[in-house]
Write a structure and sequence with these properties.
CATH architecture: 3-Layer(aba) Sandwich
CATH topology: Aminopeptidase
Helix content: 10-25%
Largest sheet: 5 strands, mixed
Order of helices and strands: EEHEHHEEEHEH
Oligomer: single chain
Strand content: 25-35%
CATH superfamily: Gcn5-related N-acetyltransferase (GNAT)
Number of strands: 7
Shape: globular
Structural class: alpha+beta
Number of helices: 5
Strand order of the largest sheet: 3-4-5-6-7
Bound molecules: coenzyme A
C-alpha cells in the first residue's frame, strides 16, 4: 500500500482512503455522509440534496438529452441516489436507485462529468449504491446497459451477467 493511503474498516467494508481523510470518514454518521474514494477530489454522498437543474446540466455535459423536471418527478420513486461533488460543490457524478418497495432495486442514470471520467468515480458511485441498497434490505440490484458498457458494469463494478428481456412500449419520438 502506498504511504499516503490508509485502510479503514467502515460499516463492514474495507476502503482505501487518503490518510488525511481517514479521521473524517471514521466520524461519519449512518445515513448521509461523505464517502471518499479513489478520486480524492470528490465527495460521495447518499440521498444528499441535488436539484433538477443540476442533473439537467450534468446530463448535458456528457451529451445526453435531459427532460427538465425529470428528477422532480422521479425522486419519490427512488430508494435513494448517490451524488459526487467536487470540492467547489459542482455535481460530477450521480446514480439513482429505483426499487419495488421490497427486495428488488434498479440502478439507473449512472453519470460522470466528462472532466472526471476514467478516475474510478463511476465505479465508486455505483459501489456506494450497492452498499446502500444492501443496507436497505434489498436482495437484488439490477442494471441494464448496451454491450459497449460491459467493461464498466461487469468488469469494473462487478455485476454478474444474466439473461434478461425487454419490450419497447413506445416508439421513439
Ligand atoms: C459510464 C460512466 C458513468 C463511467 O464513468 P467513469 O467515472 O469514467 O467510470 P470509471 O472511471 O469508474 O471506469 C472504470 C472502468 O470502466 C470502464 N469504462 C468506463 N467508462 C466506460 C464507457 N463509457 N464505456 C465502456 N467502458 C467504460 C473502463 O474499463 C474504465 O477503466 P479505465 O478508466 O482504466 O478505462 C461514464 O462514462 C458516463 O457518464 N457515460 C455517459 C452516461 C452513460 O452512458 N451512463 C451509463 C448509462 S447505462
Amino acid at each position: 500500500m502506498s504511504g499516503e493511503l490508509a485502510e479503514l474498516l467502515f460499516q463492514g467494508a474495507a476502503l482505501l482512503v487518503p490518510r488525511r481523510f481517514a479521521d473524517a470518514v471514521a466520524g461519519c454518521g449512518a445515513v448521509v455522509q461523505p464517502w471518499l474514494m479513489a478520486d480524492d477530489d470528490a465527495q460521495i454522498s447518499w440521498r444528499s440534496t441535488v436539484s433538477d437543474a443540476e442533473l439537467v446540466e450534468l446530463t448535458e455535459s456528457h451529451g445526453g438529452s435531459p427532460l427538465p423536471g425529470w428528477w422532480d418527478r422521479l425522486r419519490e420513486h427512488s430508494l435513494g441516489w448517490v451524488t459526487a461533488r467536487s470540492p467547489a460543490g459542482q455535481l460530477v457524478g450521480f446514480v439513482n436507485v429505483a426499487w419495488d418497495g421490497g427486495d428488488h432495486a434498479f440502478l439507473i442514470d449512472t453519470k460522470t462529468r466528462p472532466s472526471h471520467q476514467h478516475r474510478g468515480l463511476g465505479t465508486a458511485v455505483v459501489a456506494r449504491a450497492v452498499q446502500e441498497s444492501r443496507a436497505a434490505g434489498c436482495e437484488w440490484l439490477f442494471v441494464d446497459f448496451g454491450p459497449d458498457l460491459t467493461p464498466f458494469y461487469i468488469e469494473s463494478c462487478g455485476f454478474e451477467p444474466t439473461p434478461a428481456g425487454l419490450v419497447r412500449l413506445k416508439e421513439r419520438s
